[in-house]
Structures are given as C-alpha cells and as structure tokens.
C-alpha cells in the first residue's frame, strides 16, 4: 500500500505527480528543483544558492514523512553542466554525514524542468 506525502514547506508539484510516495518503510521522492515553496519562483542566483534551495526542499519532503537525511539510502543528481559538479557537491555534502552518506549518481543531462541547473531525487528508508 502506498501513502502520498505532500507538504506546503516544499514546492507544490507542477505536473501529474506527488512530492513523495511512502511504500512500506521506503520513501521515493520526486525530483526537487530550486522553486521557493511560498512564491513558486525559481531561486537560481548562483549554483550554490540553487543547490541549497533544492536541498531545503528535499529536507521538507523528508520531514513530512518523519525522516531526515540520515534515512536517505540513494540520491540521484541531475545537472545541466558537469562544470558545476564541485560547487553542487560542496553544498550537497553539508546535508550528510560523510561516514553514513547514501549511494549516489550524478548525471549531466541536456535539459531539466524550467531549464534549471540541478534536480535531485532520493530514496529513504525508516
């Protein structure tokens, strides 16, 4: 059985999907981009600020499912320019304990929703 997870502390979905789905003890999040949850405006001043907004959005989704970044077992990072990898990684890393960080892939893609620079999705377990 699945439980839909939604919170007003993260951006509302902009299509036919939910912020996350909890199935048993496993949470599958949708990709988050740098939309400010209150204004739905993009926060893309620079790549570090953009990545921080993405991670704060993800934090809100995890919290709505009574989880934290410690529950994350897998992350997928999609970026529009691999030259931004170092800065994205620097911000992303602040949200995890390196010793218990999740598995992850980082993939450069041709385009992302709303032409943002980074999108992140996660899988977490209780």
Automatic annotation (TrEMBL):
InterPro entries: RidA, RutC-like_sf, YjgF/YER057c/UK114. Belongs to the RutC family. Coiled coil: none annotated. GO terms for cellular component: cytosol. Gene3D superfamilies: RutC-like. This is RidA. SUPFAM superfamilies: YjgF-like (SSF55298). It comes from Winogradskyella psychrotolerans RS-3.
């Amino acid at each position: 059985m699945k439980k839909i997870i939604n919170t007003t502390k993260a951006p509302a979905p902009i299509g036919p999907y939910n912020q996350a789905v909890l199935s048993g003890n496993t949470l599958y999040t949708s990709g988050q981009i740098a939309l400010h949850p209150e204004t739905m405006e993009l926060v893309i001043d620079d790549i570090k600020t953009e990545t921080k907004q993405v991670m704060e959005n993800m934090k809100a989704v995890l919290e709505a499912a009574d989880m934290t970044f410690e529950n994350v077992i897998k992350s997928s990072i999609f970026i529009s320019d691999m030259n931004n990898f170092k800065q994205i990684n620097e911000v992303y890393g602040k949200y995890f304990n390196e010793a218990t960080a999740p598995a992850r892939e980082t993939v450069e893609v041709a385009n992302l929703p709303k032409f943002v620079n980074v999108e992140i999705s996660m899988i977490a377990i209780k």
